[in-house]
Amino acid sequence: MEKKSFWQSGHKPTLFSAFLYFDISFMIWVLIGPLSVIIAADYPMDPVQKANLVALPILGGSILRLVLGFLTDYIGPKRTAQIGMITTIIPLVLGWQFVHSLDQLYIVALLLGVAGASFAAALPLAGQWYSKEHQGLAMGIAGAGNSGTIFTTLFANRLAQHFGGWEAVFGLALIPIVLVFIFFTIFAKNSPNRPAPKKLTQYGSLLKQRDAWVFCLFYCVTFGGFVGLTNYLTIFFNTQYGLAPVKAADFTTLCVIAGSFFRPVGGYLADRFGGTRMLTVLYAGAGLMLACISTIPPLPVVLILLFAGMMCLGMGNGSVFQLVPQRFGNELGLMTGIVGAAGGLGGYALPLILGKLYQSTGAYTAGFLVLSGIALAALILLYVIQFSWRKQWMGKGGKALINTGGDTSTINA
């Protein structure tokens, strides 16, 4: 049977709806990162407290991705996404009207994680409509919704200054989430090919499989690096280079653009050349860029290095999720939640690494060297695991398809 092209297959209204849901959710998830410099004027914080504040939404997202992944499998990704959007309204209202101390702000930051958990519903909603040869591009397009971070880094501090405070930004964010909820409810549809829900006993069996942990580690580095830097770079530019809040967030926006818009490129190239081949190049590139950043070069140079590093991490996100459906296609909803949670944990750790090492050493050199070492460790793990994958699949009469592009029909042989 002749294969359909990407644009002839799937369901485009659902793909676009998944993108919008992911986009607006990511915009809300990272609200505190760019605003942190302005918030610090109301609630003075040391470097570790700042790192904790911007890391808490990522921690909340990591935990709740498991919950939304479970719901996606049982009640479907569309209904799960609707629940996620309605729940996201809660921390926005709290941040807008009810925060009067740093401890209360910590609670709001943690609750913002429900927006970050959107990953566990948005990607299965889109991916289940597409065959395996188009998974990389479909999930890359839906996953490019992390471009919502650009709206936050570009406009959050400007809106805070114009409307007289960071609290107003939380109130204004209610408008787009309501509009997207209405659009999503009308146009998104669950795929007729959605797998039947799994028994609870089957969930634990996933975590007994080595490959599940491998994908978690891979995504912990790529997505964790992207979202962690997205939330922390405004602090970095403000602290290291003395940039004002708006300009620091603008520079962060340039870096975020690279990680966001190159994600579908990573998925597309992984479809063509293989996920592991792409990740080999991307982990090496990210590790090199982070090592160069550790020298704390002049601002124009560090901006170029961060742009290139974030591009590698963003493309790596797309490449990892070209591989996951090939190996765990029947458990995609749950695996998306598990792998996404691992990515969130990486994003939670990154600001803490930079903040604590900056406080103890007075410089960012050690922090970025540690991040570079983590990227290179992922490269070594990838190199080692490929030999096992080749032996496993070739031993069953199939090709080592995880290491190639093109047809992936025998990946679960």
Q: How would you explain this protein's 3D organization?
A:
The C terminus is likely disordered. The two termini are 20 Å apart. The protein is built from 19 helices and no strands. Helix 2 runs antiparallel to helix 14 and helix 3 runs antiparallel to helix 4. It has a single domain, classed as Up-down Bundle (Growth Hormone, Chain: A), CATH 1.20.1250.20. By secondary structure, it is an all-alpha fold. The chain is globular.
Short description, anyone?
With 413 residues, the chain is mainly alpha-helical. It has one domain: MFS general substrate transporter like domains (Growth Hormone, Chain: A, Up-down Bundle). It contains 19 helices and no strands.
Feature tags:
single chain; 413 residues; mainly alpha; Growth Hormone, Chain: A; membrane; transmembrane; NNP family nitrate/nitrite transporter-like MFS transporter; nitrate assimilation; transport
- What is the radius of gyration computed over CA atoms, rounded to a whole number of angstroms? 20 Å
CATH class: Mainly Alpha
**Counting H and I runs of at least 4 residues, what is the number of helices?**
19
Percentage of residues in DSSP E strands? under 5%
Q: Provide the CATH topology.
A: Growth Hormone, Chain: A
Multimeric status of the protein: single chain
How many β strands by DSSP? 0
Report the structural category: mainly alpha
| CATH homology superfamily | MFS general substrate transporter like domains
Please indicate the count of domains. Answer: 1
Instruction: Write down the overall geometry.
Output: globular
Largest sheet: none
Measured distance between first and last alpha carbons? 20 Å
Fraction of residues in helices? over 70%
The low-pLDDT segments are 396-413
CATH architecture: Up-down Bundle
- The secondary-structure element order is HHHHHHHHHHHHHHHHHHH
- pLDDT averaged over residues: 87
Domain Major facilitator superfamily (MFS) profile: 13-390
Pfam families: MFS_1
InterPro entries: MFS (IPR011701), MFS_dom (IPR020846), MFS_trans_sf (IPR036259), NO3_transporter (IPR044772)
Protein name: NNP family nitrate/nitrite transporter-like MFS transporter
